[in-house]
Known about the structure:
The complex is a heterodimer of chains A (256) and B (863).
Chain A: E1 2-10, E2 16-25, E3 30-34, H1 41-48, E4 56-61, E5 64-65, H2 71-78, E6 81-84, H3 96-101, H4 120-132, H5 148-160, E7 166-169, H6 178-194, E8 198-202, H7 206-212, E9 215-220, E10 223-228, H8 235-242
Helix pairs in contact in A: 4-5, 5-6
Chain B: H1 20-27, H2 31-35, H3 39-59, H4 65-83, H5 91-108, H6 114-118, H7 120-131, E1 136-151, E2 169-172, E3 182-188, E4 195-201, E5 207-209, E6 211-212, E7 215-216, E8 218-220, E9 227-232, E10 249-266, H8 268-301, H9 304-307, H10 311-329, H11 332-343, H12 347-371, H13 375-383, H14 388-421, H15 423-426, H16 429-439, H17 443-473, H18 483-507, H19 512-517, H20 519-530, E11 535-536, E12 539-548, E13 566-570, E14 579-585, E15 593-598, E16 604-606, E17 620-625, E18 642-651, E19 656-657, H21 659-692, H22 695-698, H23 702-719, H24 723-734, H25 738-762, H26 766-774, H27 779-812, H28 821-830, H29 834-862
Antiparallel strand pairs in B: 1-10, 2-3, 3-9, 4-5, 4-8, 4-10, 6-7, 11-19, 12-18, 13-14, 14-17, 15-16, 15-18
Bound molecules: adenosine-5'-diphosphate and magnesium ion (MG).
Amino acid sequence: MLRVEHLTKVFPDGTVALKDVSFEVKEGEFLAVIGLSGSGKSTLLRCINRLIDPTEGKVVWDDKDVTAAQGKELRRIRRQIGMIFQQFNLVKRSTVMTNVLTGRLGYAHPVTSLFHIFPEEDYKRAHAALERVGIAEKADNRADQLSGGQQQRVAIARALMQEPKLMLADEPVASLDPVLAHSILRYLETLNQEDGITVICSLHFLDLVHRYATRVIGLKDGELVFDGLPTELTPEKFKEVYGEEAEIVTVSGEKL
Amino acid sequence: MGKRRYPDGSPVRESRGNWLSPFLSFVIPGAGQAYLGLYARGAGIFLSVIALIALILWQGTGVLFAPVLGIWVWNVWDAWQVARGRRPKFSIPVLLAAIVIYGLAFVSTEVQPQRMITGWDSMVPYVRALFHPELMEYATEDKVATAPIQVPCVEPLPEPDRKPTENPKIILDKKCGAVGDTLTLHGEGFFPNFEGEVWWLNPIGDAQRVIIDDKQAKFMTDDQGRFDLVITIPQAVPLSEQPPPGQTQTHQVRAEQHRPYGNLQPTRTLKLVWEKIGETVALAFLATILGMIFALPISFLAARNLMFHNPVTRVIYYIVRTSLNIVRSIETLMWAIIFAVWVGLGPFGGMLALMIHTIAALGKLYSEAIESIDPGPIEAVRATGANDLQVIVYAVVPQILPTFASFTLYRWDINVRMSTVIGLISDAGLGFLVIQWIRLNQFSAMATAILAIMFVVTTLDYASSILRKRIIEGKPASPKQNLFVRWGKWAIVLALFVVTFAWSWNVAEVSFTNLVTGLPSGMKLMKAFAVPDLLDRPTEAHSVRQPLPVPCGVAEAPQPPASGPRVALQPQCGDVGDPLVIDGYDLPPNTHVSIRWEMPDGSFLRVKSNCCDTDASGRVHLETKISPLMEIGEDSPPGSVGYVGINWEEIVGGPRISKTVKTVANLALITLLMALLATTFSSFFAIPLSFFAARNIMGDTLFGRIVYNVFKMGFNLTRSIEPMILVLIMAAWVGAGPFAGVLALILNNIPNLGKLFAETIEQIDEGPVEAIIATGANKLQTLVYAVVPQLVPPFLAFILYQWDINIRMSTVIGFVGGGGIGQQFRLWVGLNQYDKAGTAVWAIVIMVWSMDYLSAKAREKLI
Ligand SMILES: Nc1ncnc2c1ncn2[C@@H]1O[C@H](COP(=O)(O)OP(=O)(O)O)[C@@H](O)[C@H]1O
Ligand SMILES: [Mg+2]
């Protein structure tokens, strides 16, 4: 239900971040995106919800042309696509509750929401979302008083508020230690399996890919160099994506 | 059953009726809340209401009672709500209190916006001049002629004490005249067919333009270089300098022509400005270097981590810290006044003022840098087996050196700015030129000096920002570099430094002799400052007098009473110029009395200045001559007579808070309110403007880049003019007083805050912005939820920082017409009333400290 066709992105400074990338994602898949730092993973994810405008190519989602959408239509598409980030991107000085409520902005009244007024049911929904990621008791804390793992869970709760059908995760665990990495990915797995939310997640560690993904694509210098099942991603293929001198390391630091 | 509790856990006293607490609060604000057990809330409400009422009564503006009444009503409602277990927020009373305080600020700082319109006409020449600075001119050949004239006419007319010029010359139709008389000039020997202008020189040689029909008198010569012109004799000496009756003063009329020839060359103004630029930079340089040299050892004494090991050093620490704080809270310009008394006017006093403030400021900053040394690297270097010296060289110095250097550079920036205004007091640097030319109404010369200030400050700012960047990035010397080149570089830097230092030393006219010879007056001042004038005793005026008929016979001359305080005259009547002996009897012993000529119309004049004191038996004796003032003219009403009076004051009652303290308290409040208004208004304007100077907001389009650069440059240029200079112009616009001071501060604050705000906006974290756009939020929502929360705390912190600066600034802005406590301070110093000036200094120290403390607290809450 998500189709990426011939996507190319050239930044104003001439950097070619994506070169003619095409692939499809079916509903309910957990797609891992792998590739070296600088290979274009973030650019790809941001082209899907149009935080970045692609130079050429098309993104079609639910039969809607995302690349052609503008203004209100674009925001309607965005509110159904949740996104979480490596740096969590919470508003650090706002409370956890306010951060979670911002996930509702695409639905909220455009005027009243400017004065931090949200309907009662949004508060209930926010509590439920925080409950789900296990930090309901932190609702009134300031976001910067939370640890990294907790902040990422707030970010997931914020994305949940959007009632998304698709979740984009840009290296969600790269700033976290191994134990927390698993716990965050397990939340994504639950969303994927129980709520049927499609997940596209860029990852760095082969063991995490094997453990959580249902499908993998690999990027190298902006080109699609691998598309297949995690089981097909042998150490040889992995080296193809990451380059010859790469060593395969698990999230907990062991060599494979 | 457990007690019902408030949300914060404190118990609700339900047993007491819901109606009693509002009633109590109606009678005494806060009483109901206290009755319900909320003592802090009750006391807070009570004290706020009392404080507001006291302020209103003090400043006397009754309208402002309305919001206080509002707070009172709110307090009753609040008591009722509290009794029902609720806790209303304080937003309403805080708003009302703000209305009261801003209302007071508007009234007591005499904010009158209409003056900005009515006074615009007097502003125009200043503004116009800024676009017409005096930079280049044609060299001229000049013809100047003067002729003496005596004002007023007296019999016999003495010879004038100045001679007329021969070629060219002017011939006047009169030898003498009174102010307002017409005077015909005939000139000969001038350039033919060329324009010239006429000036009037008073007896001390001050020149003023001769005005005809509101314009300067100009003349045009004929083919033979002759002209005729009629002018009126102007009032050229102040009334207090008028000649005594029967005498005259020699004035001069001057006619001058300036015929240009040859090439453009810098104006005299520009040359003078250039010279003073040097002086400005030299003062800042010397003050920074000397300040640094003194601050270095002091900072070690003020570092907690070095001094807290034993009780003796701990005491030293406290003494040094406190002195640094006191010195720092007295503004540089105030020090300039003090040093002007000590070493006299001129660059040296200005340099000392800059230096002493620099020592205190750097001493504090350095000591904080020492306190924040990381012990980790020290441990690590020691662990390698290094000795103490090696530890210092490799672990301590690298940690403090960059911080020290960047603090020093930061201080240098401040000193350059300060040095542009120190001249308002010390007759040195560019500020001196500005104030002098404003006094002489030479606006385009003034404009040249102001533009020079902009030029010097912005270029030096730019230079030091580059240097600072290099220090922070810290290029380590590469060991591969040729040793010879490396040492050569250092030698050049060192040589440059030595030359600059020597030159600055010379320009600053450093003179240890002045420092020593001025010491007594400096000490006198310091001593008076240290003992402020806090108490005085009420006094009562007394006088006795005795008629003195001049000439004899115009009135009776009765005998003075036989006892009690009395005046006896010998002779009892006489003519102008006769010797007269004045004796006072039975006056209070050892008291200062003033002996005056008292004229029939009630005016009086001291017989002798600084006279006299009674002796132990209450007697006073003075020999003089009868003053012409005492003469009764023919046209005086019959029976009128002059007196000789003796006046003194007697202390009645015990000590009380002195009038000085009251004046100072009142002015301190006004000063505070000036700072408040300035900070509020400038934030209000700076916030929207700052977005135009933020690179990331303006974007990369051509238009965006132009707007960005225009705003950024505009900020930097206006920022370079100190409020002390701006107030000179504002005073011309809206009249001297606190309002002019507020305007000057606002004009200086807007670009300062705007720059800081813009830099904050540029540093905004894009992550949250992206995340919120990704939820489908629109632009406005993104602004409110991702941008504003990031900006509010740093903006508030900058506003508080500006508030601290404004408090300090508004204590000195009155020196040059900006109202507030500074105006009074300068007046008192001028009148040699040092104890009163000292009271003002203490008030300033207290004010600055308490406000610093409050804003530090507020800042802690922000982080
Ligand atoms: N805003 C930008 N402007 C110019 N080049 C960019 C920008 N963002 C990313 N790039 C470049 O595009 C390439 C892909 O970057 P990115 O998508 O962030 O890679 P990844 O997320 O896989 O590390 C990199 O070479 C990066 O330097
Ligand atoms: Mg990335």
